[in-house]
Amino acid sequence: MTAPRPGLLVVDDEPGIVRLIKRFAEGMGFVVTAAESGQEALEKLETEKAAAALVDLRMPDVDGLEVLRRIRTAQPDCQVILMTGHASLDTAIEAIKLGAMDYLSKPFDFDRLQELLGGVRDDIERRRALLAAESRMVRQLEFGGMVGRSAAMLELFDRIRRFAPHVRTALVTGETGTGKELVARALHASGPRPSKKFVCINCSAVVESLFESELFGHVRGAFTGAVEAKPGLFEVADGGTLFLDEIGELPLPAQAKLLRALETGDVQRVGSVDARHVDVRVVAATNRDLRAESAAGRFREDLFYRLSVVELNVTPLRDRREDIPYLTAAFVREFAGRFGKPILGPTPAAERILLTAPWPGNVRELRNTIERICIVTDDRLFTEKDTAACVTSLPPGVSPPAASAGATRTANSPLLADAERQHISRVLHGTAGNKKAAAKQLGVSRRSLYRKLDRLGLR
Amino acid sequence: MNDDRIFLHDMKNMLGIIIGFSNLLLEGMPEEDPHRGDVDEIRLAAEGAIALLARWSQANLDRVKGDTR
Predict the structure, then answer these.
(1) Measured between beta carbons, which residues in chain A are less than 8 angstroms from residue B10?
(2) B16 touches chain A (CB under 8 A)
(3) Does residue B60 belong to the interface with chain A, where contact is any CB pair within 8 Å?
(4) Which sign does the torsion angle of CA A158, A164, A168, A171 carry?
(5) What chain A residue is nearest to B22 in terms of C-alpha separation?
């Protein structure tokens, strides 16, 4: 696939100048869009994307500085070069302050123009090469679906490799969205029996009275509704791994039975007197401080110590920002492939937002954000504007772009789902990922919060 | 004065177009093309006109200054 040619917007009220620059720039590989007035340029900005713009300063209707200002908000990644017949120091300073790349005086020094446009073209080329290299690099940095080259992640991968052959129980800790389940899966996959089952249960999504039967099974007639005997997840996972997500939400009575199963390897179906022996590796995960929970009497201390023989902590994304370009590359490749779009990655300005956003929802939030961007963007390099519209929690100093009139439905349109997503993210951030507390604040049940999270793609 | 500036701006634009297209022509011409010299003349004349324009605008500026004194 050949790379598409970069766009150049030329704005001058003298048609001869426009034709001259068009001829010149096309020879350098640009696709040129011409506008013969400031007003026409503003209209073209709505639909045409440009890598660079050459704008005449003095035009009768909308002057060059105004066009420059509008380009800075509409297409912040576009490099603007102003042209003028009579150079004035004041306007030159004003133009540079507004973010113009350079200031050319007429008649043109064509060598200088060639240098500037060549620079724009080379920047794009370099960006493409860099993103392609990052995308290739991801394969080497990937471990069990996790991507990282930060010291924290390399140490985590190393610990997983070392513990996986021997570990019987492990506790994975980390904030919401850090990838605790991937750690559990990696422990399973790097362990002695990767072909056996990996069974997941989310402890906060199960009705309290059904826990025992979920984990240990029941015999026929054990309780109303138990019309048939059913094996528990421990039996299903026999020989493999049982992953207990959000273990902090497990009710106290179930904790006692879990501890017994861990210590003896025996499970008893509800309503049965016979114990069955199972060989299951148990990996539990939580975003709560279980040590504090057990000190407060909300979590059994003996179970905590039993689970935390091996404790693996997953670092929040904000503390391993150096991984963001590689994670971005991995997600862009995934979603660009899924949507069939030739997206390469972010422009430098877009990448700055991704690198500095707070990411309270961690890698999951980054992944969802990249997915939204890949849906919205139509370019090979997605822009600062696309990114600012899709990042739920922007870095300080970056404001979301205003929705333009007549725009099609995009992530920056005021959809109810977006408002809901943002509000839930904020509340979850406030409760440090504690869904029980978040559900209480939102006035919904924990289960309906889970359904919302699933529907809104926040999990 | 403002009218002079607009005249100067537009004039420079026109001459810039003549020089620019002359350059494009020259770039596309082989070294031995017999028309190269002709195009060179066009470009040289336009460059001469720009120099004249600069002298004229300086003289104009001096005259305006003299008047105000």
Answers:
(1) 14, 85
(2) yes
(3) no
(4) positive
(5) A20
Rounded Cα distance, A60 and A400, in Å: 32
A85 at interface of B, judged by CB pairs closer than 8 A: yes
By the CB < 8 Å criterion, does A58 face chain B? Answer: yes
Does B20 lie at the interface with A, CB-CB under 8 angstroms?
yes
Residue in chain B nearest A23 by alpha carbon: B24
How far is it, in rounded angstroms, from Cα A342 to Cα A166? 44
A4 reaches B (C-beta below 8 A): no
Say if the Cβ atoms of B8 and A85 lie within 8 Å. yes
Give the count of beta carbons closer than 10 Å to the beta carbon of residue A416: 7
- Return the residue of B nearest to A25 by Cα: B24
Question: How many alpha carbons lie under 13 Å from residue A450 in its C-beta half-sphere?
Answer: 11
Place of tokens 């509800």: A270
Q: In tens digits, what is the pLDDT along chain A, a chain of 459 residues?
A: 466 789 999 999 889 999 999 999 998 999 999 999 999 999 998 888 899 999 998 888 888 999 999 998 888 888 999 988 766 778 888 888 888 888 888 777 888 899 999 999 998 889 889 988 888 888 888 898 899 999 999 999 999 999 999 889 999 999 999 999 999 999 999 999 899 999 999 998 888 788 888 999 998 888 888 888 889 999 999 999 999 999 998 888 889 889 999 999 898 898 888 888 999 999 999 999 999 999 998 899 999 999 988 999 999 999 999 999 999 999 999 999 888 888 999 999 999 999 999 999 999 999 999 999 999 988 889 998 889 989 888 877 777 765 443 333 344 444 666 677 777 877 887 777 788 888 887 877 787 888 778 777 676
Instruction: Confirm or reject contact between B22 and chain A (CB < 8 A).
Output: no
Q: What is the ipTM of this complex?
A: 0.76
Q: Which domains does chain A have, with CATH numbers?
A: 7-136 (3.40.50.2300), 146-313 (3.40.50.300), 320-455 (1.10.8.60)
With the CA atoms of A252, A258, A259 and A262 taken in that order, what torsion angle do they form, in degrees rounded to the nearest 10?
-170
Contact A275, A268 (CB under 8 A): yes
**Chain B residues with beta carbon closer than 8 angstroms to that of A106:** 9, 12-13, 16
Record: contact A85-B13, CB cut-off 8 A: yes
Inter-residue contact A104 to A80 (CB < 8 Å): no
What is the CB neighbour count within 10 angstroms for residue A61?
Answer: 12
Q: What angle do CA A222, A223, A229 make, to 5 degrees?
A: 45
d(CA A322, CA A330): 14
Which residues of chain A are within 8 Å of residue B13 when distances are taken between CB atoms? 14, 16-17, 85, 106
Q: Do B20 and A108 touch (CB under 8 A)?
A: yes
